[in-house]
Predict the structure.
Amino acid sequence: MVVFGLWVINKAGGLVYQRNFSDGLAQLTSNEYLVLAGTLHGIHAITSRLSPTGPSSGAQVIEGESFKLTILLTVTGTKFVLLTPLAEAAAESILQRVYEVYSDTVMKNPFHTPEMPIRSEGFDSRIVGLLGSGQS
């Protein structure tokens, strides 16, 4: 299992968590990550309206030449985005486990304010245990 990065985007399109797991990724500034998250949120909203067969949950996978973005949309509108190589077949199941960690550590934390940046050592340590060590 190879994971390049993980993003968590709130229902308004704000980036509330970002972590890189690969040294090969371009080093972006905080503002650039915020812009990327907002852009992905907009693309996801547009693709949810493009379905010719009726209602859609939007884009679930976006592929580039050497990577793919796999998106898990929760019922609350939070998006979990996993950056992986094109060949990674288990991205959906990995995202489901990330969502379970988020539910157990972040949403059950009485000091966390929903829709705000995730500042939880418990979440970080469990994500590192699940996906491997990475860079913040």
About this structure: The first strand starts at residue 5 and ends at 9. The beta strands are 5-9, 15-20, 61-63, 68-73, 79-84. The chain has a mean pLDDT of 90.
